[in-house]
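Session log. Operator J.P. requested a structure for one protein chain; no other inputs attached. Running the standard single-chain path with C-alpha cell output.
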Amino acid sequence: MTPADRFARLPELLADDADIRRRGSWVSVECRVGIGAESFHLVLRGGAIAAFDRGPQLIRSTAFTVRATDEAWTQHWRKVPEPGWHDLFALTKRGQASFDGDLRPLLQNLQFFKDLLALPRRLPEAG
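Structure written below.
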C-alpha cells in the first residue's frame, strides 16, 4: 500500500475516533495535503470530513497546504516513529515537509491536525 493509499483511508479512520472529532469540533477549513506527488483536498466541518478528494483539484482554494515526501509519511506513520520523523514540524526541520498558505487555522487547532494526520499509524505497516 502506497503512502497515498494509506492516507486515502483517513475518512474511515477519523469516523472511528470520536475523541479527535471532538477536539476538532470548532474546525471549519479547507486544506490540501500532499503525499509525495499526490494531492488530497479536505473540507473539514465541525471536526468531521465533509469532503475528501484525491487528485489534482484545479481552481480550488484552500487555507493551507501540508506537503511531505512519500518517505516522510512512511516514516511518520510507523507505529513508533524514529526521532525526527515523529512530528510534522520535525519533518520540516529535516527538509522532508513544508507548510504553505494561511497557517492560522492549522496553528489554532494544532493538536487536532497533528492527531488527524497521524491517523494512518493505526493501519498495519507494510512489509
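Operator note: The chain has a mean pLDDT of 95.
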